[in-house]
Amino acid sequence: MAVVLMSSRYAFNVGRAFRISIASCSGKKYSSSQEWDAVPFDEVKRFIVDCMVKVGTKRSHSELLADNLATADHRGHYSHGLNRLDMYVHDIQSGITVSEKEPTVLQELAATAYVDGQNLLGPVVGNFCMKLAIQKAEQVGVGWVVAKGSNHYGIAGWYAMQASKKGLLGMSFTNTSPLQVPTRARKAILGTNPLSLAAPAGDGDSFVLDMATSTAALGKIELHDRKQIPIPDGWGVDSNGKMSNDPKPVLDGGGLMPLGGSEVTGGYKGYGLAMLVEIFCGILGGAAYGPNIRRWKNTDRVANLGQCFIAINPDAFAPGFEVRMKDLIDTCRELKPAEGCDKVLVAGDPERQHIDMCQKRGGIPYHPNQIKYGKDLAAKLAVEPFKLC
Amino acid sequence: MAVVLMSSRYAFNVGRAFRISIASCSGKKYSSSQEWDAVPFDEVKRFIVDCMVKVGTKRSHSELLADNLATADHRGHYSHGLNRLDMYVHDIQSGITVSEKEPTVLQELAATAYVDGQNLLGPVVGNFCMKLAIQKAEQVGVGWVVAKGSNHYGIAGWYAMQASKKGLLGMSFTNTSPLQVPTRARKAILGTNPLSLAAPAGDGDSFVLDMATSTAALGKIELHDRKQIPIPDGWGVDSNGKMSNDPKPVLDGGGLMPLGGSEVTGGYKGYGLAMLVEIFCGILGGAAYGPNIRRWKNTDRVANLGQCFIAINPDAFAPGFEVRMKDLIDTCRELKPAEGCDKVLVAGDPERQHIDMCQKRGGIPYHPNQIKYGKDLAAKLAVEPFKLC
After folding, report:
1. Do the chains contact at B148 and A343, CB–CB below 8 Å?
2. Residue from the list B234, B278, B344 with its beta carbon closest to the beta carbon of A184
């Protein structure tokens, strides 16, 4: 046995972080719990629509936002659902995001369109763009639509799934406020820059990848900080650009690491992917990009986000796409798990599990803090609070 | 101070792996050295063409292969250059790859084409497809071409750069023999599945991302094994699907981990990306996919790889793409590095450094083993060996 001496805090971090990082699997555990109250899906949407309409948002725009946010919660992505409603309400109230216009097409070719989001709500811009991409894919095989002048648009997967529900492949990307630190740097100049791909697999089955290009979301680090537990390797760096297993220095002047973590574990690849997303969004779109996107939670100027929406028609290629897709994802699911691991999943399966759980509950379970937050918002806006199951 | 007791081998691994993984940067060091002999770029190509023609390959096909392989070495990706020549020579000699045909278009729409690679050399198929994608992008904004019946095609970036050299964005993807183990699994059923994006930035500058979706390439692990040094976290798993810092169990029945490494450090994201590449290649293309692709180095049956080639016309979107692209990459390069780190780079910069070094040497430097390998192959095929600088 070798004896390794290290400072106690460091040892704690080494022990915890290393034990966490060497496990090949850890099972994404949803925080939703049997003790929480649940709200029916349609009631969540009703509540969101009422709040947004109350502050002057067009009903059709409110409905698009409500569908995206409720879908996020339904899929277990609570950070991007009801949790963000007050932000959207405030954006409309302040006028920093508008509702009295519609997106416009600035330029169009058979397979592409360049759209001005006109500073409308993200889901309004995204829904317009993805519809257009789908039309083009049905006509010429691919539709590739880029927007400038957009805003935060909820979960990227919602847009991709609009295409997969129609038997097409769908992709969506957005840039975001800078939070991610490029490999070897110390300053966050790129967004979490998510990408999404949804592909149909027949019989209601599908592959749905919806992922930030940073290793972890800011929210996960904030949660670890609140619970006072260390974060694993590869999640965040401090203000000197040094990887930290302590969440505090990351949240205080540090930033998110790209997927892959440090350089030797592949972080330059995640950084390359974050750049790919920015290229499709801010650079192609002539929108704000990189460090000149307004800071997260800062609404003194318009966001002018760039977003990209792609639809691909599998009928333009080899017949039988869905059969092969189903075969591949079932092959993955049937793989023998590694020692100590749960069942092998494919992208979209954790969300399916959450949706099944909601089905059994008769609605979406929310943490008591979120129930209270919803009641407070209802009172503040004089809107009917959501009814529980 | 806390005292942490662990087995000596483990401590060695913990110490080494942890020290390696906590450094935010480590500088990708090229193995090319001042003491190595160098071969002029055109002479490398001449040699490759002569070898391939000698065993019956069409001259035009040989030239495409030679350009891809020499470019790989020029860019410092030695594993995919001259190093692979004997494999291509053997493929043609054995007839498992052919040369007496040309790729054919099976189906075509304005923005897409579905191509039969006819079991030709990968670079022949890829060159045909990317040319077609570029034409379509110039006409309708995007060209998206998928091929089945292809073979190993060298570096993905070579295809993407054909588009960026013409002022377009280019992407390429290929599936490969299974080497990557999905998150929570123990068996390798996906390929290294690389993706590539090249975007022009004016004045000969560009962004060129060319990356496998596994954390590391098999070759890197083999190198560590030969040098008897541990591998960092997130590179490989043993045959039980457990992460290993010892290269031997990885090479002996184990496999490569997806980008992100273990589940908690984001490995399910790299696994999702490997699936994305397979969806674009084997699934869209009706080619071999996943576990049914023949094993690496096994040539008893055709490969029938799937590949995808995309070209995007930036003029279909916001004017001034190259100016913004240049601004973003220069912004990254000018970032203050983290403590102890070298200059911040963007994807394509390490390759640029290698090319500059070759320029100064008057040719591509090769390890003595590769020089010998070239001489042996020349003797075996009765071809003029390459002249050194």
Report:
1. no
2. B344
Chain centroid to Cα A330, Å, comes to 25
What is the pLDDT tens value at each position of chain A, 389 positions in all?
333 333 333 333 333 333 333 445 665 555 557 789 999 999 999 999 999 999 999 999 999 999 999 999 999 999 999 999 999 999 999 999 999 999 999 999 999 999 999 999 999 999 999 999 999 999 999 999 999 999 999 999 999 999 999 999 999 999 999 999 999 999 999 999 999 999 999 999 999 999 999 999 998 999 999 999 999 999 999 999 999 999 999 999 999 999 999 999 999 999 999 999 999 999 999 999 999 999 887 888 999 999 999 999 999 999 999 999 999 999 999 999 998 999 999 999 999 999 999 999 999 999 999 999 999 999 999 999 999 99
| Residues of chain A contacting residue B259, judged by C-beta atoms under 8 Å apart | 259-260, 266, 269-270
Which of A129, A175, A263 is most worth mutating to test chain B (most B CB atoms within 10 A of its CB)? A263
Helix (H) or strand (E) holding A127: helix A122-140
A373 touching chain B per CB within 8 A: no
Q: Give residues with Cβ within 8 angstroms of B226, minimum separation 6.
A: none
Closest Cβ–Cβ partner in A5, A185, A237 for B337:
A185
Residue B195 contacts residue B173 (beta carbons within 8 Å): yes
Burial of B225: CB neighbours in 10 Å, binned 0-12, 13-18, 19+: middle
- C-alpha to C-alpha distance for B37 and B34, rounded to whole angstroms: 8
- Structure tokens belonging to residue A322: 């869905």
Say if B147 is an interface residue toward chain A (CB within 8 Å).
no
A370 CB-side CA count, 13 A? 22
Enter the tokens of residue B59. 């001259």
Whether B7 has its CB under 8 Å from any CB of chain A: the answer is yes
What is the Cα–Cα distance from B119 to B32, expressed in whole angstroms? 34
A290 φψ region: left (φ > 0), alpha (ψ -120 to 50), beta (else): left
Sheet containing A195-200: order of strands:
A104-108, A112-116, A142-150, A305-312, A169-174, A195-200, A206-211
Phi and psi for B191 in degrees, rounded to 5? -80, 180
Cβ–Cβ < 8 Å for A172, A309: yes
Task: Compute the half-sphere exposure of residue A344: CA atoms within 13 Å on the CB side of its CA.
Answer: 25
Cβ–Cβ < 8 Å for A143, A137: yes
Answer whether B235 sits within 8 Å of A148, measured CB to CB: no
Q: Tell me which DSSP letter residue B293 carries.
A: S
Interface subset of B 40-69, CB within 8 angstroms of A: none
Question: In this structure, what DSSP letter does residue B264 have?
Answer: G
ipTM of the modeled complex: 0.93
CA distance A110 to chain B (A): 5
